[in-house]
Fold:
Amino acid sequence: MKDLLRTEDLSRTDVELLLATATEFAEHPLKAKEALAHRTVAIYMTKPSTRTRLASETAVAHLGGTPIFIRGDELQIGRGETIADTARVISGFASAMIIRTYAQSDVDELGKYATIPIINGLTDQDHPTQLLADWLTIREVFGSDISGRKFTYVGDGNNMAHAWLTMGAILGAHVVVATPSGAWAPDSEAVATAQKIAAKTGATVEVLHDPEAAAKDASVLYTDVWMSMGDPESERTEKLKALSPFAVTAELMSLTAADGIFLHCLPAHRGEEVSAEVIDGPRSYIWREAYHRRSTIQAILYHLVRGELEGNIFD
Structure:
């Protein structure tokens, strides 16, 4: 496996290895401080970022490398140079590249033409690095035995919903996504991918339109912002109206398991997708989750550069 372009690229073995290594890096960030010594990692972002940028640059530094941050307007790719040519040039200078952008197809094309590992730091379709941080947090709270537990996402059927279903399927979990029907439901292709993986791993994948049924007895209740970067403002009123029943309130949280926790990939809009009472309450693990963006990106870089991930074996 050369690249991490999509969540579905990972095998169960890969996820277990990455989580184990990330656990070590969470406790000992400088454990492999020479792994990228005298090497550079390009970090290219066309979308604004707090956690992904900080986590990526810190992860590279903790591995002994030099992060090179590149904004979307700082490459010739914005003035007509092809993605393929850009991939070839960056491959001559860097040992890996992390990209955060809009189109999944751009990430896929970079992976095709680059000779170095390409890591998807977020696209409109997927967010694999976030899901690894989520599951590292889940493992810290509940351990590795997830039998009998339900893991629920409520809200917009966006990239986070897609990645939530896919990663849960890979890990053999019972995962639920609850969204409005219609325009803000998850893509049928993403659901089909998760179901295909679940058929091999024994996972249970559910897509519902009832937030209370989804939250009932859940060990994790997860949500994301309702208006993502790039969403047209013309849809705001209609979208927020459709999503309002899916807000994570204290009432919805009360339906979860007695030891259930709240997660959010951030940034958050208190009073919109989640109440302040929940996100700032004792059952919220969002800050540990955010910290693990660094732990998991560090693990991804460490193993991808060393060629130690096997890749998707579900096909």
